[in-house]
Amino acid sequence: MSTEITIDQTENSNINTSNSSNPFAFTPKRLSLLAEPTQKKESLLILKSYGGLVGLEKGLHTNLKSGLNDETTPLKPITLREITKDLSEGGDIIDDNDQNNVVVKGSPFYQRINIFGTNVLPEKKSKSIFELMWIAMQEKVLILLIIAAIVSLGLGLYEDFGTNQAPTQPKIRWVEGVAILIAILIVVLVGSLNDWQKERQFKKLNAKKEDRNVKVTRNGKETLLSVHDVLVGDVLNLEPGDIIAVDGVLISGHNLRCDESAASGESDAVRKMKYEDCLRELDEGVAHKSKADPFIISGSKVLEGVGTYLVTGVGVNSFYGKILISLRTVAEDTPLQEKLNDLAEKIAKLGGAAALLMLIVLLIKYFVSFRIRVPPVTEIFDNLIKIIISTVTIIVVAVPEGLPLAVTLALAYATTRMLKDNNLVRVLSACETMGNATTICSDKTGTLTQNKMSVVTGIIGLSISFVRDVETHSFALKNESNDVAILENPISLQQINSALPQDILQLLNESIAINSTAFEGEAENGKRTFVGSKTETALLGFLLDINLDNIKTLRDNAQIIQLFPFNSERKSMGIVIKINDSKWRFFVKGASEIILKKSEKIIKIVKSEDGTNTSSVIDLTQDYFNKVQNVIENYAGQSLRTIGIAYRDFEQGQIEEMTKKGSGDEISYEDLFYKLTLISIVGIEDPLREGVREAVKMCVKAGVKVRMVTGDNVLTAKSIATQCGIYTGGEVMEGPVFRDLPPEQMDRILPKLQVLARSSPEDKRILVGHLRKLGEVVAVTGDGTNDGPALKLSDVGFSMGIAGTEVAKEASSIILMDDNFSSIVKAIMWGRNVNDAVKKFLQFQLTVNVTAVMLTFISAVSSNEQKSVLSAVQLLWVNLIMDTFAALALATDPPTLDLLDRKPESRSAPLISADMWKMIIGESIFQLVITLVLLYAGNSILGYDTPEEQLQLQTVIFNTFVFLQIFNEINCRRLYGKINVMKGVLRNKFLVIIFFIMVLGQFLIVHFGKAAFQVTPLNITQWVICVALGFLSIPVGIIIRLIPTDLGHTTYTPPEVRVDLEKEWSDAITQVQNQLYFFKTLRGGRFRAHFGDRKENSEKHRKAIAAAAMLPSLISASVGVQMTSREPTIQKKLQLDNDNDEEINPSSSKNQNDANVDTIDIENHS
């Protein structure tokens, strides 16, 4: 089957192909089509249309063997038409987005660099501290504060220096304006310095040696070259462990396999084949059976094999570079920022309205006094200025000066503490956003799993079953069939060493260690690592897990006679070693079902009377064969890759006879590969990270829905999701099906979607974007390059600090330093703690402000001198110093697990809940009552007559007002109607210290403030009265909390979008019934009577008329409704789509379930 592909030539088709600025047959845009990890079949067809490797060689002026030659003279232009006649000349054009690199003519490779660029990304300009400060000052709350500060400062200066005052009166009214400006400066500095510091910390985290050397062939010679100097047309060498830096097409290779999980999300190794071999498979129609391709993708890693490839994309035109560039976007406002900006607008309006009302009342009151006496013009002017000052004071008092500082302090404190919990917060606002996350879209490979294939379960002989984690695989072990009784009561990996006889332990050790092509690599974090195929490294890692670490010694001592590398046809690999002069042994491992079929004996371990374990070799009867077969099927049902390990012993005579039959001194594999003795069957998979299951449970408890988004096939994704607790019977869908859903159907599916498999980066981006449109606050976790776009689009992006790629880290808001999904739960707790801290402070601040505004309004209006009961300096202490201390105290409450007992808040949820309004209004009324009673009835209640006592009353009012706020701060520690406000109070040392600082500060002000604060010292009785009245705010707060709140606390509840299939059926049937009813009416001759009956429902008339119009198609409609339904179930509809898709898409995982055992092999050549 030969498939052709054509390239769109309509765009700019009139451009002359002989454009001298591009001597190459290709442009960067055209070559980038070859580096699409999720569309390799299409890329292969495009490569074919370019003339294959030969076409690339000619079009790029290079040589597949000798590489690039020094280019100092202009190259002879060549067009795609000259390479292949399949394309018209219009297809060979210069793209509008070609490189803007300007290299001096005559420099080496100047034309190549001008067209294709260099392998260096343009440096991202980081913001300076001053730019960050300017950005921080754009918040509406701060703008409101700046205006208030300037007005306050201006009026203060006028009052102090523009009016006649008593010499003893201190000139300190301007201090409030300056103090507000200082508070603004602190807020801006703290926020911007924190962002600047985190950015530097992030750069330090990524301080890797990006400039590394790679092996390049130029001028026919192999040489080491800086990765930044690699150009399009270069020929690069590939070796195990290499991190691929640029895109390209394979020229030649042997047993080359790459890990593209960072690019595609699929954990299985990808086999690389030459272009000609891939094209042959495509033409023969077997491409759907093979996952092989010739494309080398930047950002992936070479697992095994060697090869050379032709570079086709570097820098911003490579797959890796394009993703990095796409991440450079502008951050959006967080939900809390949006709510705070909205609050600032409302406060400005309310403060302005209150000031306007006060101005009108005071002006009316002032001008009414003219009927008695009209004062001089200068006096009128002075009095009007005083009235204006009093009204402006209302606005200044209404503005919550400490709110921005509270938010900044809460975020700064949280991010510092989160670092100890292994969360590096790059974007400060991400912390509070995470608190209201409603859904987490998590990548599988490297995030939920370790991205390291490991032996997770297995059997040794017929007697011993083991598992890495009993809880993970417990669902598979609970099987009612007696055929898998061997799987009952499994032991842990650590118990294998003591449970096996020494000879079997040695046999297992040798069979894995010697029969392997993987080798030991450099240690990472103190742990030994192996380089090779994922299956072989998993088996060697298994030996380390069971404390058999003498791998190198075994290999060095083994006398290897002949090695049989892995072969995809026989799906196994083997090795012949010499035990002694008369005994040889053949070790073999491979696809478990093939090893089992070739086995005639099996190991049996029995426990003797003295408690020791002994082993024996017994015949593999049909009954035993069926038992092992059931074990394999059980593992396959869990989507585990099953590997069989066996051996066979030979005498010297047998080996000599086989050598004679073979060619030369070699033994034929077929002569060895039968009559095996089965040692073990093991199940391999990418295991879960520690704590993932518990973390998912806690997320669900907190009302956060966790979804898995992966590039892996459906079976593997569903298995891992079940182990994690993510999949609980909801929807499982594949990326190609999901991306083609109409928006309405996507809206219905999303609430139930739990697993999205075979997803591309675009699918993840669509998912995140659509969830955000539905009002969800979306967090995305990922570690690979393919996760970048979704991480950037999300509200909060989490990347892995250890295993994460540079792309993922650049795109994320928070970096998990320990790569542990469970750290996200801590981030949710801290996020909610920050939101609560802001709400606690807001409740406290607004109580102060509402009381102060009302008190100022009432006292100024009732006063003959339009003077407030609280002086400007007293308000400065209450509004600024108290607020700053309160912000610090309430922002430093540590998080508790109780925070996970409630659902997240939606974006539309009000910043101030009904419970908070209840507390604000209740406490404000209580404080107003106390203060006004003291103001207007204090003299009579306390029996004050003398002027000195009346002056003390003013101080008592101020002192009581302050202590009402101090105790109300403790009152505000608990939200959502929680009664016990003292719970955990001693855990917050800041709160305790600040409480005593405020009490001490108030004591010093009252005793030493005198004229500056317009106070006089109080005696012990008066202090007791003030403190006692202030303390009453705590019991009053408890009483207010006991008052039921009708509206309740607004929490986010995910919309339950149900597809009422029964109703859809009912609608279809009703329509046909109406049609049949009308047809019956016509047949019965009752047409006139039917429509003449005025009592009939008008709706039925409408339906009948509509049915009459459809009469010609009535019969077909009636029959059709019996043959088809409107989506019997959404699941079946999607399954049908999957089946159709899988006939086209070669990477489909359909039919794997039936043939799972037959397609499992050691190198995943399925």
From TrEMBL:
Keyword Amino-acid biosynthesis: no
PROSITE patterns xref list: ATPASE_E1_E2 (PS00154)
Pfam families, alphabetized: Cation_ATPase, Cation_ATPase_C, Cation_ATPase_N, E1-E2_ATPase
Biased composition (Polar residues): 1-11, 1145-1156
Span of domain Cation-transporting P-type ATPase C-terminal: 868-1043
EC number: 7.2.2.10
Reactions performed catalytically: Ca(2+)(in) + ATP + H2O = Ca(2+)(out) + ADP + phosphate + H(+)
Membrane-spanning residues: 141-158, 178-196, 347-367, 387-414, 920-939, 951-970, 990-1008, 1020-1043
Ranges for region Disordered: 1-21, 1133-1166
P-type ATPase A domain sequence ranges: 211-324
GO CC annotation, single: vacuolar membrane
Chief location of this protein within or outside the cell: membrane
Ranges where the Cation-transporting P-type ATPase N-terminal domain occurs: 111-152
EC category: translocase
Ranges of compositional bias, category Low complexity: 12-21
Entry membrane topology: Multi-pass membrane protein
Compartment(s) of residence: Membrane; Vacuole membrane
GO molecular function: ATP binding; ATP hydrolysis activity; metal ion binding; P-type calcium transporter activity
Function: Catalyzes the hydrolysis of ATP coupled with the transport of calcium.
Family, per entry: Belongs to the cation transport ATPase (P-type) (TC 3.A.3) family.
Protein's name in the database: Calcium-transporting ATPase
Organism: Glomus cerebriforme
